[in-house]
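Q: Sequence in, structure out?
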Amino acid sequence: MTTGDDLLLIAIVTGRRRIRIRGPERLRFALRAAELADLGHAGRIAVGARGIEVIDARRVADRRLNNVLHSLAAAGSPPDAADWLRRTPRSLTNEYLSWLEDRKVVRVRRRRDPGGRTRHEILSLAPGRRRAVLDRLDGVVRAGGGEAPGDADLTLAVLVQLADLARAAYPGLRGTGDRRRLAALVAGGHLASAGSRAGQATDEELAAALDAGADSLTRLLQGELGDLYADFTTGGHGLGHSADPGSWSDGGAGGTGHHGGGGHGDSGHGGW
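A: Exactly. Output:
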């Protein structure tokens, strides 16, 4: 399971009548950022002023991340991080949903609406898998003086806040305190990395970049995503006009497959 898988599990919520994905349009950009974060934590890429540089093209365990790594390596020059995020395929949320379906984490029914669009109805979700992810998020939000959270958990917490999924993770009045703590942690920059990776690098410049730990990469992605969301929110480009997650599109859209061999990918527009 990747950080993107975990993020999608948090976004899948049970409503009064059905299970749905909260804010899939905003979510897809966070999924794209999660891929960069996972590759960065694995020591495969470095994201900085020079763009997204592949520093180790060896395969990673996840097939989808391998495809992303291959795309980055095949680029003529290091892609700009902001541009990479803005070119997120509209199908990305659906692709992640299909992957969870292949892993038997969710069960999905697809149908065509009168307009020819594919609708995705989530019939069931393995609650234990989602609960395990929420427990990891709790470890960041409610951390005391114990062991520092891991890099992936720190990144997950930041992306949950940026994608406006705090209410999905901590709903209702009972979740108010945790939502406030998460917002304060992310806004105040108080998330501390579990450790340094400088010892893995031989290049001095790379060693200095990795020595900043996961926090540096996550903060960079946080800034890029924040700018992207602000542009789309105020510019009317599909993410709605307010910070209220309920106001955003509840439908994803198909398009060119992002990860290749997506199994259930659909070329038509989709939604939930």
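Residues 193-213, 236-257, 260-270 have pLDDT under 50 and may be disordered.
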